[in-house]
Amino acid sequence: MAKRRVARRGRSVVALALIAFVAVATSVIWRRAQGVTRASELARLAERRQQLESEREKLAGELRDAASRRRLVPVVEQKLGMRVPNDSQVIILQRPLPTTPRP
Q1: Distance between CA 77 and CA 67 in Å, rounded?
Q2: Closest alpha carbon to 21 in 10, 32, 13
Q3: Which one of 6-20, 46-60, 63-77 scores highest in mean pLDDT?
Q4: pLDDT for 25-39, tens place per residue?
């Protein structure tokens, strides 16, 4: 009777060990699949970020070009009737020096 009880106990230990192994293996496989999914999502987001940064640089360049004097002078002359003054028409004002209070 004692021998039979030991054999049964041995089988249950082996069965529990196999169940534990399958559970651990399943969790490892699931975790790796989640990692692969997240890695591909991160790669996609990094690519999108790169595209947006290049578009931002392109738009900043277009803004600099649109605000350049070369483009603004003809528009201002036509629409507003303004012109660039001659050197003799420019007056440069000097800032007065700040006075220091006396004690």
Answers
A1: 15
A2: 13
A3: 46-60
A4: 999 999 999 999 999
d(CA 19, CA 25): 10
Residue tagged 């399943």 (tokens): 26
Query: At which residue do the structure tokens 């070369």 appear?
Result: 70
Interior/surface letters 24-37, b for 16+ CB within 10 angstroms, e for the rest: eeeeeeeeeeeeee
Distance CA 58, CA 64 (A): 10
Angle at 53 between CA 47 and CA 56, to 5 degrees: 145
pTM recorded for the entire structure: 0.52
